Recover the amino acids of this structure.
């Protein structure tokens, strides 16, 4: 199992500190970042444009994911234990049971 990684990238820090709007703006301007395996526990990610993000193996425990569209986001191996997910859209290839297992027990998400 991979350990969550605290990244040194400024884009990661924006998300960790709850500045999703600034992250979105800088991403549109082409700033680079790597969120695979990122430790985003407790981060307020509301407002994040998650389209085409690679959050594989990310640690999203207690993160606020409310209202985010994750349908085009790679969540393979991510954990959403105790995250706030009201109004969140998940990829169709993730079953409701798989999402529930990760939310309640912290299992890593596996696509069908």
């Amino acid at each position: 199992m991979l350990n969550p990684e605290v990244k040194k990238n400024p884009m990661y820090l924006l998300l960790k500190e709850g500045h999703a709007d600034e992250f979105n703006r800088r991403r549109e301007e082409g700033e680079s970042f790597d969120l695979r395996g990122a430790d985003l526990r407790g981060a307020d990610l509301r407002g994040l444009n998650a389209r085409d993000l690679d959050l594989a193996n990310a640690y999203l425990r207690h993160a606020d994911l409310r209202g985010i569209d994750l349908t085009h986001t790679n969540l393979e191996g991510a954990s959403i234990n105790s995250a706030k997910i009201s109004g969140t859209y998940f990829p169709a290839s993730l079953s409701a049971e798989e999402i529930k297992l990760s939310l309640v027990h912290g299992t890593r998400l596996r696509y069908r």
